[in-house]
Every structure is written in structure tokens, then in C-alpha cells.
Amino acid sequence: MFTVSLRAVALYAVSVIAVRIMGKRQIGQLQPYELVLAILIADLAAAPMENVGTPLLYGLMPILALLFVHALLTLMDVKSIRMRKILCATPSVIIRKGSIQYDEMKRVNYTLSDLCEELRSQGYLNIAKVDTAILETSGKLSVFPKSEYAPLTPGDMGYSLRQEGVPLILVMDGKIRPEHLQASGKDEAWLMEQLGKAGIRDLESMLIASLDTDGKLLLQEKSKNAQRIILNALRPEEVVW
Fold it and tell me: Do 187 and 133 lie in a common domain?
């Protein structure tokens, strides 16, 4: 039983490493050759896991070989436009200038039901409001509304807004994130001072402390559902990230 468990853990670890090497894409965003690789890795890992009589290397070596092939195909995908078209195909315009491209839909085996479902999932109940829809090589549908139905932006109204940066998580589940605290240009003493202003003395009680580029420090304790915000934790000139 121990041997079976050990083999399962080893194959699981190799499979996870293999998928991580492939990148951080979600399954729905995989290119065809990446999806096939993911399926094959699962199948190759299952055989030695189920049968103790199958040598462990019979599962590990094919997985490593497929990873080598994947690296080679990825390099070809990056370096050659022609190979990229062969491996990944090209995006297909499903709706052009408000008109459904029926011949293109037939070519890529994309039904009207598929189109309506994808439009609804992106908030478009009426096809008449869509100017362009492109079926990407990953299978995702990119939808662009007609100009009269497009959301109004600050730029349309003549406003120029400051670009908002990514908030830094300074504390997560009671633990300080030192790399984020350093990126904010502050130290632990400053953080504890800010927590003290909010009446928080125990760092372990913190669920999250998040600092945004407007200098707002969001605080929430594990035992409480309410969030508190310190509005002026940083001055604009102190923002360094």
C-alpha cells in the first residue's frame, strides 16, 4: 500500500510540474496542441498509478518526452507565423459590422446557439447591439458593441484620470507580506502604527490589510465581517509602486 501511495504522489508531482511548465493558462484558453498534451499527461500518469506491475519510468519518461515536444512546439509558435497558423489556426470573425458571417460559422463548426450563449455570457441579449465578434484561437468569443451601445468612459467626457495601480496586500491571514511592505516603501513599525490607529493590537487577528495607490489602507479582522479603511495612510508623493 505504501508503494502504491508513493507512486501516486510521485506521478502527481510530475504531472503538476508538467502543467506548471506549460504556463498559467486556464483549460479554456489552451491552444489545441496544449490541450492534447494535458489530456495525454493525465492518461500517462494514470496507467502506472493503477497498475503496480507497470514500471514507474513508463509513466515518467513519456511525460518528460511530451514536455520536450511542447517546448519545441512553443518555440516554433513564437518564432514562426506560418507554424503558429498551423498549430493554433487564426481568429475567425463571426460578426462583422453587425452582420453574422454564416459561411465562416459553418467553416469553424460554430452554431448560432453557441453564438447566442457566448453573447449572453458577456451581457449581450440583443445581437443587433453587436458590431464585431471574433472567435479567438482559444475558443473564447471577443465581443465589441456598436458605438451607440458602448459604455461611456471618462475619456469620452473629456476627463483625464490618474491611472490606478495594483493594491499591495500587506497582511494576509495574520502574516505580513514583507515583499509587499517593502514595495510600499514602509516598514513593519509603520504598519503596526496604522493598525493601532484602527484599534488593532494583535497582528494574528488580521484577515487582510491592503494598501492601494490612493493611500487607502483597507483592514479586516478574522472575527469581524466589517471592513475599515484608513483614508490617508499614504500621501500621493509617497506612492512608489
Answer: no
pLDDT digits (tens, 9 = 90+) for 212-235: 988 889 999 988 776 778 777 776
Work out the number of other CB atoms within 10 angstroms of the CB of residue 166: 9
Q: What are residue 130's DSSP bridge partners?
A: 145
Indicate yes or no: pTM above 0.85.
no
Assigned domain for 162 exists: no
Domain extent for 55:
2-86
Q: What is the mean pLDDT of residues 96-116?
A: 94
